[in-house]
Q: What sequence folds into this?
């Protein structure tokens, strides 16, 4: 029996919730009823939390991150970049035993990250280690995804240690886009810069809303029937976008890889213009410009979602305010709608 009376008059409960090969639990009680109640509780607890009878998981966070990359991360389009960010997080946390990571540990990590006390892995200039709330929010999402994915794969049996931590509220970022005169000035600057590849990549981005890397990596095989098919996209899904006939004719004679890498050239060319962009924006302004003009010219938001390749319509909705009839009712239905020129009629007392 697992419940027996001891020589000292106490009742001993000796139970193996996971079987004889598992962990043993021993407790003494004044009465037999208490001992039997504890035995039942211990067995029920082990059924609901089977890991209680397993050997303690002493793997460090770095081991779990490496396992995540091996089993899942390497298949992501931005897998290597994600791995680099996770390495920064791991070093910043001090590579703890993963089972000991907690919401409190994470809260203190991100507070130090915001104050610029953690090496970002990219520069030795400590003044540049300080980050914005949006950065630690993304880091929290990346680390949380590691635990969630390993749990789905059966490689992690405990709860996600940072699942209940609320992310910081993020301010909507300023979004730059180019007007028609600015587009003309940009294309003129490209021509003057003298890099044909740079000029053509800019044209592709403005004509299709493609990300810079998607346009820069195009091959001749991706062009057909006045359309461009973008592959290896950020969202992992191919998409095909029609292009103007003149642009297709300009690209059609090219072969193999259509362009040489020219991201750095864009920055230098942009510096020769008077165009001023929001902080942190460079080539992405071309994508914003396409979307802004598409909606301003009466485009459909769902069609725009497909062209841009957004997985979630919420990403596309930030361009909705460019639509010509967006919230137009604010003018026609406001309390001043019947007061021409904002003046009160003479016969109104």
A:
């Amino acid at each position: 029996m697992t419940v027996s009376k001891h020589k000292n008059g106490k009742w001993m409960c000796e139970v193996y919730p996971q079987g004889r090969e598992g962990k043993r639990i021993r407790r003494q009680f004044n009465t037999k009823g208490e001992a039997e109640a504890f035995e039942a509780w211990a067995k029920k607890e082990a059924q609901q939390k089977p890991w209680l009878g397993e050997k303690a998981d002493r793997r460090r966070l770095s081991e779990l991150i490496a396992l995540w990359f091996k089993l899942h991360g390497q298949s992501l389009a931005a897998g290597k970049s994600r791995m680099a960010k996770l390495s920064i997080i791991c070093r910043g946390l001090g590579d703890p035993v993963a089972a000991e990571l907690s919401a409190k540990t994470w809260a203190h990590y991100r507070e130090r990250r915001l104050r610029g006390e953690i090496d970002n892995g990219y520069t030795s200039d400590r003044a540049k280690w300080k980050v914005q709330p949006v950065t630690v929010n993304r880091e929290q999402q990346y680390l949380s995804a590691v635990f969630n994915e390993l749990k789905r794969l059966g490689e992690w049996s405990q709860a996600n240690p940072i699942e209940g931590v609320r992310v910081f509220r993020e301010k909507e970022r300023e979004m730059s886009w180019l007007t028609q005169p600015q587009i003309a000035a940009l294309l003129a600057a490209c021509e003057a810069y003298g890099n044909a590849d740079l000029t053509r990549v800019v044209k592709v981005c403005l004509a299709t809303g493609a990300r810079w890397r998607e346009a820069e990596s195009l091959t001749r095989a991706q062009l057909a029937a006045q359309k461009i098919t973008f592959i290896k996209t950020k969202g992992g899904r191919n998409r095909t976008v029609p292009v103007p006939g003149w642009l297709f004719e300009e690209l059609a004679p090219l072969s193999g890889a259509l362009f040489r890498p020219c991201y750095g050239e864009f920055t230098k060319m942009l510096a020769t213009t008077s165009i001023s962009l929001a902080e942190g924006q460079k080539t992405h302004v071309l994508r914003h410009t396409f979307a802004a003009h598409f909606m301003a010219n009466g485009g459909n938001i769902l069609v725009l979602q497909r062209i841009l390749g957004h997985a979630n319509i919420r990403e596309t909705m930030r361009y909705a305010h460019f639509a010509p009839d967006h919230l137009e009712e604010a003018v026609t239905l406001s309390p001043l709608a019947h007061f021409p020129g904002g003046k009160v009629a003479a016969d109104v007392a």
